[in-house]
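Dear Dr. K.,

Following up on our conversation at the group meeting, I've run the structure prediction for Branched-chain amino acid ABC transporter ATP-binding protein/permease from Paenalcaligenes hermetiae. I'm pasting the input sequence below exactly as I used it, so you can double-check it against your construct before we proceed with anything downstream. Let me know if the numbering doesn't match what you have in your notebook.
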Amino acid sequence: LPAGEPLLVAEGVTKKFGGLVANNNMSLTIKTGQITALIGPNGAGKSTLFNLLTGLLPLTSGKIEFRGQRIDGLSSRKIAALGVSRSFQHVRLIPTMSVLENVALGAHRRGLAGYIRSGLHLERAEEASILAEAARQIERVGLAKHMHDAAGSLALGQQRIVEIARALCADPYLLLLDEPAAGLRHLEKEALAELLMRLRAEGMAVLMVEHDMDFLMGLADYVVVMEFGQKLAEGLPEEIQENPKVLAAYLGG
Ligand code: ADP
Ligand code: MG
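The predicted structure tokens came back this morning:
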């Protein structure tokens, strides 16, 4: 799909946890070659929406289309195989394992190349192909020199980038990042922003939950704001920054 075309379209997405409506009639369009930011106060329903988009949770109602195909109701594995990949809000690397092993593990868990049936036993050729793909993605994100270092020995910013390398192994069209800049130092944020801009230039679509407005302003093409499970506003970063409803939501007004 050419840049700017709708890649993922969610309509009327609702998720209830018992009596709690975590997503209420949410709609969202994510376009190719764009970075879309999803913002909103704590508890607004952002992580839940990620879980719905990636098939980790079933929808209560609504529909999600990805590349023209309905994906709501598909397993997370199927959705990943179609090209939706994610990182989690908290780093999930195994600190004592190498960067390469961590990325390969993630690639394997996602069922890289489909033919891998279980983690119990891998044919040598399969293992080699996974390691080669992992190494390729580690190079792509600029961490080749840390390939064999223990993941836990890297700075937090680098660990976040390892997580992105892991997500890239599935060769996604869409990358979902949950608070990628949280807790990072200024230079680490710059490195992360640079990587995301490079991926965007390659045609990748990114949806990220992020609170850091300074980080978002220079980076996001479009911003969607959630509050109480619903869409409060959407628009260009400059518009959102001045939107009175958004300001009120953040100031608790
Ligand atoms: P955000 O990521 O925007 O902070 P979440 O999507 O994590 O918000 O949460 C939205 C609401 O849904 C919160 O009230 C949260 O407590 C609730 N919630 C999230 N996941 C679950 C769950 N698995 N079971 C019950 N309630 C949940
Ligand atoms: Mg969250």
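Two things stood out to me. The chain has nine helices and ten strands. Residues 17, 20, 22, 40, 42-48 surround adenosine-5'-diphosphate (ligand 1) (CB under 6 Å).

Best regards,
J.T.
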